[in-house]
UniProtKB/TrEMBL annotation:
Its cofactor is Zn(2+). It comes from Streptomyces antnestii. It catalyses: a primary alcohol + NADP(+) = an aldehyde + NADPH + H(+). Keywords: Metal-binding, Oxidoreductase, Zinc. This is alcohol dehydrogenase (NADP(+)). The lineage of its organism: Bacteria, Bacillati, Actinomycetota, Actinomycetes, Kitasatosporales.
Amino acid sequence: MTSQTTTVSAYAAPSAKAPLERTTIPRRPVGEFDVLIDIKFAGICHSDIHQARDGWGEGIFPMVPGHEIAGIVTEVGPGVTRFKAGDRVGVGCLVDSCRECENCRAGQEQHCTGGSVGTYNAIGKDGEPTYGGYSQSVVVDENFTVRIPDGLSLDEAAPLLCAGITTYSPLKHWGAGPGKKVAVIGLGGLGHMGVKIAHALGAEVTVLSQSLRKKDDGLKLGADHYYATSDPKTFEELAGSFDVILSTVSAPLDFGAYLGLLRTGGALVNVGAPEEPIALNLFSLIGGNKTLAGSMIGGIAETQEMLDFCAEHGLGAEIELIEASRINEAYERVLASDVRYRFVIDAATI
């Protein structure tokens, strides 16, 4: 068992809004219930950019982003029962929680009232900053590690640890399935997985995108319909159509207009998190008993459920594999919506 802190290569933002650069970071010794993971691939999530640029509040620097981690177990602590060396595993947005509150006991660790610990940009229970997946390896408690089924390649599985669970959880919660009409706003890193998962769940799926530029992609991914939101006729034609609308975009929307697309009792669920506050006329909710909701990732057990579901249905992310030296370029391309549909870092290049 590794009894000493190790030093590994990583890419970090030295300060807010600064370009990421190659550096080294410490990794804690492998504890009794820890697994040491040799990181093979790490997805680039839009939230990495928000946090590295202080978009969601003051960050902890230097910051090593990355919470879409796929790799191989190379060592386990003596108390570990779930994993062994050689296992294919993943780590998502959380690496710890209080484990005692009502939410943790219910498998909702992401809503831990005692304070969950993020995979990066957080302070662990040891008082040290957490560093994410843009690195060679990571040490994680076995209870916050999930198994990647053999049916999924590690590179295409990495984005599922955030983009997959972030869309799977609300679609399941709000009843996406046969006989239901689901709309996905935005066909990006989150949205493309939302389309795949909603289709696999059996729902009738519509993509609502600013333009028809990605229409062919959307239909190939499983959408039944594709509309441009830049066309005012879209909101007239689709009024009162949907049971569930999943918004994956991180820009403020005209929520009144989108709520008008819901059936009576329908729900507009946000998984994208704009940095700016939104304005809302509550009559757009009151009329039709509609719900404006939010959803944040999912618990560890549900993340495993999602991975098993994706393996069963052959759902990996659509990725563009890059070398670590291209991370800053990738950030700019994400902001320009110029990726189809998730950048994944080859950790061997870190």
